[in-house]
Amino acid sequence: MSRIIAGAAGGLRLASVPGTATRPTTDRVKESLFARLDAWGMLADARVLDLFAGSGALGCEAASRGAAVVDLVERDRKAFTVCQANARTVNAGLPGDVVTPHRRAVMTYLENTDGPWDLVLADPPYPLGEAEVTAMLEQLTGRLGPGGVVVVERSSRSPEPAWPAAMQRLEQSTHGETVLWFGEESG
């Protein structure tokens, strides 16, 4: 079981996806990620997109910390059922329904949704190829709000994502087997 670390829903327990189909973000990585995002002022009233959401824990954490709108995108049926349950749990403790789960493939969702998003959290399965990660980043080009950030969580054995020409890396953060890549639109 994971939990909401801080914010209005801090301490709430979230359901986990049964089996090994997803790889949950550890509390240590979540703490580091959200400390950085809080320091940058990225969460207050933000429009957040959580791609490859798994249980939806990252998006739910963003909602707890003040995001105005959080969309969880997950294709897997079991994971989506957990996303729905976790969204209900977190929304019950917040004013209004902030978290909305969508059962769609990430690329299909991006092809049919415009944005803009202030923060995109992308935690693709480690086996997902680099070409697919690059295609996802290309779909996000031009769809971030002013100062918007994309965070890509990958294995520390994976190469840096191939950022599209319109995006650039801000920084990276390594936590054991996990690396977080932070990017933004250029210019």
Question: Would you kindly provide a written description of the structure presented here, covering whatever features stand out?
Answer:
The protein is an alpha/beta fold and 187 residues long. It has a single domain, classed as Rossmann fold. Helices cover 29% and strands 28% of the residues. It contains 5 helices and 9 strands. The strands form 2 sheets. A 7-stranded mixed β-sheet has the order 5-4-3-6-7-9-8. A two-stranded antiparallel ribbon has the order 1-2. Helix 2 runs parallel beside helix 3. The longest helix has 16 residues, at 77-92. Keywords: Methyltransferase, Transferase. Its EC number is 2.1.1.171. This is 16S rRNA (Guanine(966)-N(2))-methyltransferase RsmD.
Write the layout of secondary structure elements.
Layout lengths: L1 E2 L9 E2 L12 H13 L7 E5 L5 H8 L4 E5 L3 H16 L6 E4 L3 H6 L5 E6 L7 H11 L3 E12 L11 E9 L2 E8 L2
Parallel strand pairs: 3-4, 3-6, 4-5, 6-7
Antiparallel strand pairs: 1-2, 7-9, 8-9
Helix pairs in contact: 2-3
Give a short synopsis of this structure.
With 187 residues, the protein is an alpha/beta fold.
Characteristic terms for this protein:
187 residues; alpha/beta; Rossmann fold; seven-stranded mixed β-sheet; two-stranded antiparallel ribbon; 5 helices; 9 strands
What's the helix-strand series?
EEHEHEHEHEHEEE
- The CATH topology is what? Rossmann fold
CATH superfamily: Vaccinia Virus protein VP39
Low-confidence stretches: none
CATH architecture: 3-Layer(aba) Sandwich
Per DSSP, the total helix count is 5
- The percentage helix is 25-40%
Number of domains: 1
Strand order of the largest sheet: 5-4-3-6-7-9-8
CATH class descriptor name:
Alpha Beta
Q: What integer value in Å does the Rg equal?
A: 15 Å
> How far is it from the N-terminal to the C-terminal residue, by CA?
41 Å
Strand content: 25-35%
Number of strands: 9
Structural class: alpha/beta
> Major sheet, described briefly?
7 strands, mixed
